[in-house]
């Protein structure tokens, strides 16, 4: 009999190496993160720098990148690690994803050799924490409208502006900051001890509580010319990085869904009402069956997209399809699992409500559901609905 969370035997599609990497990530997540995550979410305080160091020691940070201390694993293996981290909490997967697929990827793909040597080995080890400064207080879905501006001043750049909802931002050592210039949008590698840089943690969140979320401000922040990412011009740079991170979300959300499904199955087979387990009732079995099929198909979609990426033929619209589908599926599974647990579904003793709250954010960040719908619509029709 297959494990309850793998009704469709998706595990059969994985290589021995991929399963080994998955199992390593699962052991790390279960041993190092799971015992503490409920407290981190309850208090809204995350020891992000300590966790980054642990993830680096486990070889997880930037694991899909080549060289500079990175493991260089394949896309599907990276996705499987994302599943195991998000099975614990979406906020922990976000720390991993922002470090590796946004900050490190940007430097790896667009940076100078000097920038790569300076930052990537330390980031892979978890000695340096990275962040990605794109979203602004008034511009999320339309990054082309960003107001942060970098102006030339001799050989230097002077940056003014603000970024919002930046994971890791207030604890980071380095932030990849995107800004408007006279030559369009450009990226800059910004050490956070640069004068004029400030970061403030955002408090009172109802979602992603086991995550550091920040507002960044830049006031006459002076950077040397060497801070510019030479390989990124226009929106191609930040959107390329976002596509990497969205790929991880496609997989990761199935981890949150799996956790909710496993919790619901365990509860349904042990909770007794009317003198029998609630899992013996037809309505409960119907919910569990639908949840299992939805989770399995989302996982199959993830692996399929992983194979397309390995073949070098994965399209952005296909990543959008994966994120749109899998975030919706995971959120619906979390909500349904909550109904099976009844009043216990809102208790911090169980992970279900925490996952549901987190997934409300995952549905929105790195492209809202509506933006991904329009991306798919453009692919289908050849017509852009974007302004």
Automatic annotation (TrEMBL):
GO molecular function: fatty-acyl-CoA binding; flavin adenine dinucleotide binding; glutaryl-CoA dehydrogenase activity
Keyword entries, A-Z: FAD, Flavoprotein, Oxidoreductase, Transit peptide
Biological process terms in GO annotation: fatty acid beta-oxidation using acyl-CoA dehydrogenase; fatty-acyl-CoA biosynthetic process
Cofactor: FAD
Domain Acyl-CoA dehydrogenase/oxidase N-terminal, first and last residues per copy: 15-127
Record domain Acyl-CoA dehydrogenase/oxidase C-terminal: where: 233-380
Domain Acyl-CoA oxidase/dehydrogenase middle: 131-221
UniProt xrefs under Pfam families: Acyl-CoA_dh_1, Acyl-CoA_dh_M, Acyl-CoA_dh_N
Family: Belongs to the acyl-CoA dehydrogenase family.
Protein name (database record): Acyl-CoA dehydrogenase
